[in-house]
Design a protein that fits this description.
Elements (H helix, E strand, L loop, with lengths): L5 H21 L21 H28 L5 H33 L4
Helix pairs in contact: 2-3
């Protein structure tokens, strides 16, 4: 049986860590301990609640923008029906996506709760 060389193991470990950091930078996440505001909590760990909250706020903003443009069209302030319909479709897509994510989360929660301990 061959012996394990500790220096070789340390070299492999540092190589893996360097590759991991390079992949994170390429993905736009930065290095260890850096993150986008509102998505990562204290210590640089991803915060699921903040990510969901941010996504819901974006969907809500899109819904408000679509409603505002629709009302402006109905009042006669704008005659650009194309932009109104595009914004309404964006809002509809965001809402449908939110519903699908909610359904998947509920399904996962039910699956976890039904697991034998």
């Amino acid at each position: 049986m061959s012996t394990i060389d500790p220096s070789r193991l340390l070299q492999m470990r540092s190589s893996i860590l360097n590759q991991n950091q390079a992949l994170q930078r390429a993905a736009g996440r930065g290095g260890v301990g850096t993150g986008e505001a509102g998505v990562e909590g204290a210590g640089g760990t991803p915060d699921f609640g903040a990510a969901i909250n941010s996504a819901l706020q974006q969907v809500n903003a899109q819904q408000a923008k679509a409603s505002e443009l629709s009302e402006a069209y109905e009042r006669g302030d704008t005659h650009d029906i194309v932009s109104v319909m595009i914004e309404r479709q964006k809002a509809s897509l965001g809402f449908e996506t939110t519903l699908q994510v909610r359904n998947k989360l509920l399904s996962a929660y039910r699956d976890i709760m039904n697991m034998p301990v």
